[in-house]
Write a sequence for this structure.
């Protein structure tokens, strides 16, 4: 590595950006680090929030833009988009020659980034390893752990899982989740301010009355069921006439099913208290989380930032099932009645005590510090034998 | 799944083919299974042995051919070739609609195959998981485990490692290595017969005198050092004038370095007792293993089939370091003196007792049987918490 | 070539399908031909009409599906999508081994299809060569001519242009446009029937009153101006309160601009007499062309089928400028006033005499006959020297 | 365009580099131009001469490197490599934002470069348009003309052909071939100097005796015949025991056939007076052309630089058939006897008078001047109707 370590961060979606903003800032500010940014995938697409604009407004001009989303939102195109990332990112890495690549969480862009760097003998630092969830993300997250050299899990339990899978504890750092950093520093303002800035079509949300935030993404391993799953949620909401701000889904396989359900729901003529929204700056989104009555859907934000902010949440289906979380989350299956009941319960409960399970707001700083000093070998090998751990619990 | 389960096996190299031949046969013969074959990557390239010809001669006509090797043999092109596989294999999978995809070991083609199927919600069965080695293969092997639904490790220890990493024991089958199947059934004949069929340029190998088999592949994580590493081996061999059959390297990053070393070595004019060979049918290769005096290099065949056949072997460098093996293997670093000493010691020792560490010759059958009956869920999740296993060895 | 010539037709969009339906039928019915079908590009995407469904309903099951649209609808992604086609189509061609590939018109999928086949020494038959238009299509159309072996232009003038560019007259066949075949055989029914089958959101179109058909696609060479161009059209229409059925644009670069303009227009609240529609079966689309008061926009259908049906049309901007057409077309620039004036003039004029400039309804049959008998060499070469033609008009 | 026009030159092979070296220099030196360089395709591969090293030694550091050769050298992989170029070059163009892209001649990399830029509304300047030859290059060259905005043909006749195909004479510049620039300025030295610098294996060439330069590339449209074609040439040469410097072929489909023939020929044991060589700096290559007794094969260099230098040449087969040339070239079919006879005739004749058919050594300068001032529209359209030219020669 040269005088200053070159750290390349790949920003691949709107959600991605929220989770690395403070890392971007901390790396840029660190005297021993040089920041490189690649904008890729749905971060370049307006219908998924066009995170590249927010990135540029925040003063991070991408060193490369990699357009890799193959249209279709099917399992086939998701696999192919991963391939396109693995095909093109090496070209960018070859030009930029980073010392360390930072990749986030568990998405197909993560997989592409991580695979590209690992094959190119570039050190990979991975955030949010060791968590448990549903969707293909669950498999990808752990696969990415096995390809990464530097682990930046968000909780103590996650860190222990990463180590137990055979990673060297020397390179596992429980830094917290950088998404909490943003939540910690954003002035919570009022719902009114956040809402008025982003009026979409339809009757406006009245912030003085209760309103829901609905974020439901496709579950790739349940592809083909997305329409029914989303209709269940939407019908549950409309059944008791709550105001709701409904977000369009992400780019994963099945996103078109969620989109289709929203269109069908609107055509049913019962959506009059719902607003549909493509995008929101991270700050305004956090403000709405801080003021809404309940989050509904299957976004991990309900568990992470939601936990930190004490926002009541109903997590639907399998996507977040088994992920660590605080008391603010109630789980429900894809049944409209069950969802409606859970939401009512949360509305009755009101806001929760804040939890620092996912961090205390210093993750960005801590990550930059790790990146500036850590020196793992490029050649990975099981640090200790996971099988040795198995012994105590009995031989099969 | 339909009446007969469609099992798609991706054959991606010469080494690959040797390791799935009996699986191909057993799946084809199984009444509850329907075989699909994809030939890909270096299996389609003559300079890497053109395994597709052997495949077709054995009566397996590929349902699709995927040309995915981007020329260069650098870390960049290896990453990109992985991407090309992930881009094209989904198209083939969409046409063939397999119920299960079988992928072998730990190569970049394995990664592409596995990632493509996993994202497409197709069950993936993975052979040779849970082993430990060097090169990027080490990382990829474990990543592939985390993406696969059905695990077919080759040894008891490997199986335990796979389970300890959080995989469900219900879907982990210690079936042995199917490469041993071929070794078990091949009539060992004589070295003379095997040699005479494959005369290349240069003075012929005299099978009545000792001869070495040299297979040394690039170590991707040590890219840039391949020339020196191979020269060390070649000089060691030529230092005591042994006859040697030297194989060209595989398609990995750094293959051009190994190739360059061979060219340089030949130009030095000390290669008169060496033969250089691109390819050998699996049967003849096994015969030579059964009759050679010593295997030299870093191929895993020295540990697997070599162990089964009791062939003395010198394993050089980091590529196989820490992989399970029997007594037939002596390890050496990239030092010509150390290599020469180790080879001499093995020549003095002579052949070893056969070992069934990697199986007893029934892997193909057992794999087909597993594939015909196993019913794992598409949605994976950590079966038990690896962190729970960690507890007994002390909290960090 | 074998007993029956294998003819592979690549269907890449909704518009594409309408233009090869009778060719598909005629090739399938021809005793000397064997039909192969590849569905690709936006033909696989529901938001562009999902032509693959219509294809399958018509009994043409695709032999391969190639998903190649990289999302974004920018000049960059259009170029990249072309590349993806050129990357994947060869894999399909290698599996299908066609004797002749048929490619349509002038789109980026045409370019990919044509390039792939030409490099693979497969004969290429190209429809609609020799026409003149705007957009990048103009360049691509002539480039495709230079790569194709068999030319199937739609008009006499087009055929002469193809020859004058150096193509061998022996392989240039003025067969007419197969889009006219469909127009010739479709029972024209009533607008009412066609409209009632495809009710979208908004107040229904009343077929007893005049209504417009609006199809405006992006002009790739004017990328960045699409919003203004489309707003001009929409404002022109709304200015005199005509009923209008407005189609969403195709997948070309700038499609998102047209889409954005439609959204903006709807938000302006002046769209109450407009219906917005994604897709229409070819038959119903032809019925609406036969009964509407005027076509507005820049689709070539207004010149082709519109001419045949005598439908008044206003062609806006540069996309069709200079294309051969009959008297039914009036051209206008991107000026709302000019557009409104032209539409009024056409409404006042009413329907035109039908024209057979683009064919008489037998193109499909004639194309199949050509494909069954033509025997061009794979190696092309300028048939005669275009420079020799230049002489008479004076040396530069 | 900005203050200085950004001119991006894509260097894609060893041959390519020789043909744009003076353009690179002239653009770099021009006060109104800013040079960008992309190294791509076989220019990055050592076994095809690794032109990137020469490029860097000449002080041209590539702004991007695009690895796009899919290994195999078959028609399928050639098509796919074109696709890979079209997929990746747009990413580079988006980063570099060139005003004009310069692309050379007629290769698949040319096609990819040209297509990428044209779809992205970037002006394309094309050298060597309007020539006639064999192989797929013939089709590609004219297709590229139809996609390009600025034409830089090498001869007066070529310029007239480009115009006759419908291009606007205002943007057609007969500048000569920049390969001649190098020939004009290279000090011809002695064969001895050039030879001694590049000794390969085998007995050295004695420059005081006659020696041949053999360059034979695959003819893609005759794929499958390459072995026989090359064997005919090699046998012809060995039949009268001439010294020969034989070059390995380029990366086109069928290159492996030519390579295979060379290996076979060497194994036949009659190659003792032949040297086989991968690469030569352009200057040394020109020196050898200036001093050899005859060029044999199918390289266009025999017609271009060979004509300028007066080097006797035998052009074999269809690859250069019909290309404009001077008296120094004799054509022969793939018949060993015919080839041998033609070579003998050339040896008897000796060197020819130099010809300036392909230029006078000022092409680079003239091209830079054109690029600095030309202002073609992005939207192309047939300038005049080629069909109008056809009229005088009679209607079909």
């Amino acid at each position: 590595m040269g005088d200053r370590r070159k750290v390349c961060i790949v920003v691949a979606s709107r959600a991605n950006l929220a989770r690395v903003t403070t890392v971007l800032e901390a790396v840029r500010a660190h005297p021993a680090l040089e920041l490189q940014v690649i904008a890729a995938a749905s971060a370049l697409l307006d219908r998924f929030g066009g995170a590249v604009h927010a990135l540029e407004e925040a003063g991070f001009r991408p060193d490369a833009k990699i357009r890799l989303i193959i249209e279709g939102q099917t399992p086939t195109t998701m696999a192919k988009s991963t391939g396109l990332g693995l095909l093109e990112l090496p070209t960018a890495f070859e030009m930029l020659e980073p010392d360390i690549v930072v990749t986030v969480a568990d998405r197909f862009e993560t997989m592409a980034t991580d695979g590209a760097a690992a094959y190119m003998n570039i050190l990979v630092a991975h955030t949010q390893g060791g968590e448990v969830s549903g969707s293909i993300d669950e498999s990808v997250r752990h696969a990415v752990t096995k390809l990464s050299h530097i682990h930046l899990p968000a909780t103590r339990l996650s860190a222990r899982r990463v180590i137990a899978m055979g990673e060297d504890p020397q390179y596992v750092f429980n830094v917290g989740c950088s998404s909490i950093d943003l939540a910690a520093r954003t002035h919570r303002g009022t719902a009114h301010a956040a809402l008025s800035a982003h009026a979409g079509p339809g009757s406006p949300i009245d912030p003085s009355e209760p309103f829901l935030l609905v974020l439901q993404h496709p579950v790739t391993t349940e592809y083909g069921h997305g329409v029914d799953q989303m209709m269940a949620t939407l019908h549950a909401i409309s059944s008791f006439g709550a105001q709701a701000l409904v977000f369009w889904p992400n780019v994963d396989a099945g996103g078109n099913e969620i989109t289709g359900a929203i269109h069908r729901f609107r055509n049913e003529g019962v959506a009059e208290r719902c607003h549909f929204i493509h995008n929101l700056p991270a700050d305004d989104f956090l403000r709405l989380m801080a003021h809404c009555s309940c989050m509904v859907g299957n976004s991990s934000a309900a568990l992470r930032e939601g936990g930190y902010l004490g926002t009541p949440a109903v997590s639907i289906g399998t996507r977040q099932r088994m992920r660590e979380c605080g008391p603010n989350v109630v789980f429900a299956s894809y049944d409209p009645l069950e969802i409606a009941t859970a939401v009512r319960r949360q509305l009755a409960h009101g806001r929760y005590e804040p939890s620092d399970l996912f961090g205390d707001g210093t993750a960005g700083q801590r990550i930059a510090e790790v990146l500036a000093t850590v020196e793992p070998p490029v050649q990975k090998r099981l640090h200790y034998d996971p099988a040795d751990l198995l012994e105590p619990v009995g031989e099969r």
Observations:
- Residues 392-396 of chain B have pLDDT under 50 and may be disordered.
- Chain B is about 40% helix and 15% strand.
- Chain B touches chain D at residues 44-46, 67-72, 74, 76-77, 80, 84, 201, 256, 267 (CB under 8 Å).
- The CA atoms of residues 245 and 275 of chain B lie 5 Å apart.
